[in-house]
Design a protein that fits this description.
single chain; 63 residues; mainly alpha; 67% helix
Length: 63
């Protein structure tokens, strides 16, 4: 019980940080499923746009 009292501050801060990280990861997963980007800008000028998003069905039919 003494160890718990000695480290209570560290335990609370660790739990708060772990909760924040988990919430951020859950939001990123939900946004990814909705098709939203994480950068906040459009993909027109992005060099990595091909790796972020799969081609649409219309684009697949054209090729």
């Amino acid at each position: 019980m003494g160890w718990l009292k000695d480290n209570l501050g560290t335990i609370i801060v660790s739990l708060v940080l772990a909760s924040a990280v988990i919430l951020i990861i859950v939001k990123m997963i939900r946004d990814k499923k909705k098709g939203k980007t994480s950068c906040g800008c459009g993909c027109a000028g992005c060099a990595m746009s091909a790796s972020c998003h799969s081609p649409s069905k219309k684009e697949e039919k054209d090729t």
